[in-house]
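User: Predict the structure for this protein chain, please.
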Amino acid sequence: MKSIQISLEIFSNIRKFTAITQDYPFEILLKSGKYVADAKSLLGVYALDLSKPLTVEIFSNDCDELLEKLKEFQV
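Assistant: Here is the predicted structure, written as structure tokens:
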């Protein structure tokens, strides 16, 4: 498992983020405090507190390509 911190304060970034994560077959979670959402779910992401940095947890060791695509959201 790998994790990174991201920011999704701009609403247009939420749609872009979920579109990127949907292309990968492994589990990707998004955490905000004690709340957890599926990073592939647009509604799940909207339910989180987006005013603070979020933690992305990627459950795969073969995720270098995904990490590269998520760099634009990294804090």
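The domain at 2-73 is CATH 3.30.1340.10 (Histidine-containing Protein; Chain: A;).
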